[in-house]
Write a structure and sequence with these properties.
heterodimer; A: about 130 residues; alpha+beta; OB fold (Dihydrolipoamide Acetyltransferase, E2P); 2 domains; 5-stranded mixed barrel; 2 helices; about 25% helix; elongated; B: about 675 residues; Four Helix Bundle (Hemerythrin (Met), subunit A); 5 domains; 6-stranded antiparallel β-sheet; 4-stranded antiparallel β-sheet; globular
Chain lengths: ~130, ~675
């Protein structure tokens, strides 16, 4: 169908452009995704890196300040052995709740406190309630 | 009732197994009676699954909480409409709804009166019935909506208050309808491969099925975006959430398919590519359902049930492997009948559009499953967020929109450069004027100026094309402009429906560009009487109200909105706590104008009376919804059945053949060739 070389060349140029676009976007947006134990296991080597951390919000750890604009809580893995304090500034989604898994994205400070920019509740039980 | 539903599903499984086999045997051994009985089987399946749906509906409406599904998703205090929506609110019910739609579509396929593609129906129905068997099997084993509890709860758990939105009534069924609909084009494609009837037949048979599936998917996605915007309260409409992506993927490949089948009909090229696209689109539809059910990716949409994942994975695997294998064995029958001639031709724009759409789909897919890949390969999970998707898809979508403008004024086969110049002079000039005007008016972001200029170009090319067509028709027939315009639309609905869809997309793009480049947000904590300002607005916090309704505890804050000292009105963002569901829900307040939305979120408050707000100004968001409506209208125009007037058509065709060769009429678009074979040889 494409006996004429110009179509092949045109197609290859477009594909290279798409590939380059994808690569640069990826390089700028790739983020490591850790569990709480993994984060704490890495120690100081990942201070200042942007990452996502998944963990369970410990019951009783949630505090809010500034009339709901700043939230402090602690997350841990399901085994509950190590925990990571989190500070989040912003609007908390409605599905955020103690005891539920959550994914936070942000930076781990050298004080060991995770400064979260985004907060995504994983809410497995929300649309599928246990009876 | 539960037993009736379950038994109906069981019988439907038997009937669909029978039909699937009987079609094959009847066709191969040439026993028309067997094919007829298989046909009746399809109708029976539809009847039986309908009984199951009615049984579940009855259980929901009569509050039969013994049934686990009813207890999980409904409660006594729910209104009738939300009770009805409970059918697709949960995992098991939505699978039942899927199976029902598929049975319905399957029945329409066997009952449809058709001039072409009759020979394809038996095998296509077998494919539909095999898919039906898969879903019925799930419903009877791991996702039984009629499962009974060992005790009788006094009341059900009810619907999650976040789902209490009109969006809930339309978003899921439209999306599911779109997903299910793509089964039919896939089934006809497989039937064409199996029967070696690889001409235009299958393409002709499925054009409207593809269109309606695509339209349902579009409606589902647009309503989903609107729902997220007005209900989820984060100020945006699309978050590149894995499940949103999953519904975008078949939309992208389906859009590519809708365009590339036109190439096959007109020129007899891209035959293998069409097969690949329909296989991918169908697989992605199933993949979307798989993602929501499996819980392998974190998303706001996921259902907790994880037992379904492996079943879907096996089904997708078998589908992909067998259909691509079949395509490989038949590939020599799918050679192109023509050559691509010129880079400057409508074919070429369609080809690029396909490359871009599939490229975008590939990028989204890769971003979606990258955590899984990186974990498998390197043992670490790496995710990519919204920036990745925006950065990749922004330029690609803009290129696609640009092509939508180019293709309106470029002829099939080959366009001369002088012809091109003549067609594009005005639109290009107008677009440049609009672009410069935007710069003068203060739009300075280079990307935004460029993107808006492209949108202006595309709009003018399409409108210019309409204008030229109308003018030609007016001259030819002596009609007035209005009559000529509607006559033009009616004369070639697929074509002008398509253009209308393109206009809708451009309007959506304008909304997306405006709201992504120029949105402003601000948070503030205010005492009653205090003000904050954002852009040209000043908002004064008046007071907070707390009151109790039967099921909710509501806190609402009243803000007065001023613009340059002039009171525009009041907005009342609120938060309520659903007593029965034990969840708090933020209700945003939106003051919407065509130019911009003022979007207010009540964040929280403290005991001293200080109340926090997040205020956003989102420019041009209304155009996304307006564009959505235009897009749906366009889809309906394209879908609307054409009048059957064969003799005229042939005449038109003959004339058009001459026209497209001499390349004088290719742009005016009054009468375009419909069935391609004549033109192709001519």
């Amino acid at each position: 169908m494409f006996k004429q070389k110009k179509f092949l060349i045109g197609g290859i140029i477009i594909l290279i452009a798409l590939g380059y676009l994808g690569y640069t976007a990826f390089a700028g947006a790739a983020t490591y995704y850790y569990t709480v134990n993994e984060v704490l296991g890495k120690g100081s080597s990942i201070y200042g890196d942007t990452m996502r951390v998944e963990g369970q919000v410990l019951v009783g750890s949630v505090q809010q300040e500034s009339a709901g604009r700043m939230w402090k809580f602690t997350i841990s893995d399901a085994d509950g052995q190590q925990s990571l304090p989190v500070i989040y500034r912003g609007v908390v989604p409605d599905t955020f709740e103690e005891g539920n898994p959550v994914v936070v994205e942000g930076i781990l400070g050298s004080d060991g406190i995770f400064q979260a920019k985004t907060l995504m509740p994983k809410c497995p039980s929300k649309y599928e309630p246990e009876v | 009732m539960a037993d009736i539903g379950y038994i109906a599903l069981l019988l439907a499984l038997v009937a669909s197994l029978y039909s699937a086999t009987a079609f094959v045997f009847g066709k191969r051994r040439n026993i028309p009676a067997l094919v007829d009985s298989a046909r009746n089987g399809v109708v029976a399946v539809c009847g039986l699954v309908s009984i199951a749906v009615l049984a579940l509906l009855y259980a929901i409406l009569t509050h039969d909480f013994q049934i686990e599904y009813v207890a999980s998703y409904t409660a006594r205090d729910m209104s009738l409409t939300y009770l009805l929506s409970a059918i697709w609110a949960g995992n098991d019910g939505s699978l039942l709804f899927w199976a029902w739609l598929l049975a319905l579509f399957g029945m329409i396929v066997v009952l449809q009166r058709r001039d072409v593609g009759r020979e394809l129906v038996p095998y296509a129905s077998t494919i539909v019935m095999v898919t039906e068997v898969f879903f019925l099997f799930l419903l009877l084993s791991v996702a039984n909506p009629f499962h009974k509890l060992s005790f009788l709860p006094a009341d059900g758990r009810g619907l999650n208050p976040l789902l209490e939105n009109p969006g809930m009534l339309f978003h899921p069924p439209n999306l599911l309808g779109g997903y299910v609909g793509f089964t039919i084009p896939f089934a006809f494609a497989m039937s064409a491969l199996l029967t070696r009837r690889l001409g235009d037949e299958w393409i002709v048979s499925i054009r409207r099925w593809t269109l309606v599936s695509w339209l349902l998917l579009s409606i589902g996605n647009i309503i989903g975006a609107w729902w997220a915007y007005v209900e989820l309260g984060w100020g945006g409409y699309w978050a590149w959430d894995p499940v949103e992506n999953a519904s975008l993927l078949p939309w992208l490949t389906g859009t590519a398919f809708l365009h590339s089948i036109m190439m096959q009909r007109r020129r007899g090229i891209l035959k293998k590519w069409n097969m690949v696209l329909v296989i991918i689109t169908f697989s992605l539809s199933i993949f979307g359902t798989f993602l929501t059910r499996s819980g392998i990716l974190s998303s706001v949409h996921t259902f907790a049930d994880t037992t379904l994942g492996p079943f879907f994975l096996v089904f997708i695997g078998v589908t992909l492997f067998s259909s691509l294998g079949l395509l490989y064995y038949r590939s020599e029958l799918l050679n192109s009948e023509a050559e691509m001639e010129s880079l400057v031709s409508r074919e070429s724009t369609f080809l690029m559009n396909n490359l871009f759409l599939v490229g975008a789909a590939f990028a989204v897919f890769l971003g979606e499953i990258f955590p899984l890949i990186s974990e498998a390969v390197r043992g670490v999970k790496i995710t990519v967020g919204a920036p990745f998707y925006n950065q990749v898809n922004g330029p690609i979508f803009l290129a696609i929109i640009f092509l939508a403008g180019v293709c309106a004024l470029i002829g099939w086969r080959r366009s001369s450069v002088s012809n091109l110049m003549r067609n594009f002079l005005w639109p290009l000039a107008i677009a440049l004027v609009i672009g410069s005007a935007l710069i003068i008016l203060g739009v300075r972001q280079p990307y935004a100026v460029f993107a808006f200029t492209v949108c202006a170009f595309v709009l003018t090319t399409i409108l210019y094309e309409w204008f030229r067509g109308t003018r030609a028709r007016r001259r030819m027939r002596g009609d007035n402009y209005l009559k000529a315009f509607f006559g033009l639309l009616g004369a070639n609905r697929p074509r002008y429906g398509g253009y209308t869809v393109h206009i809708g997309l451009v309007l959506i793009a304008i909304g997306v560009i405006g709201s992504s480049f120029y949105n402003v947000e601000k948070e503030a904590t205010l005492l009653p009487g205090e003000s904050m300002s954002i852009k040209n607005y000043t908002l004064t916090y008046e007071n907070k109200d707390t009151f109790q309704t039967e099921t909710r505890q509501v806190d609402s804050a009243t803000l007065s909105v001023f613009n340059g000292g002039k009171l525009l009105g009041k907005i009342v963002p609120s938060k309520y706590y659903s007593v029965s569901y034990e969840q708090s829900v933020t209700e945003v307040a939106i003051r919407s104008t065509p130019a911009e939305d003022l979007y207010a979120i009540l964040i929280g408050w403290d005991d001293a009376g200080a109340t926090s707000f997040k205020i956003l100004v989102n420019p041009l968001v209304s155009w996304i919804w307006i564009g959505g409506i235009v897009l749906v209208l366009g889809g309906l125009i394209a879908f609307w059945p054409e009048r059957r007037k064969l003799p005229v058509e042939i005449r038109v065709e003959a004339r058009e053949t001459v026209g497209s060769v001499s390349n004088k009429k290719s742009g005016n678009g009054i009468n375009k060739v419909r069935s391609s074979s004549e033109a192709r040889r001519g």
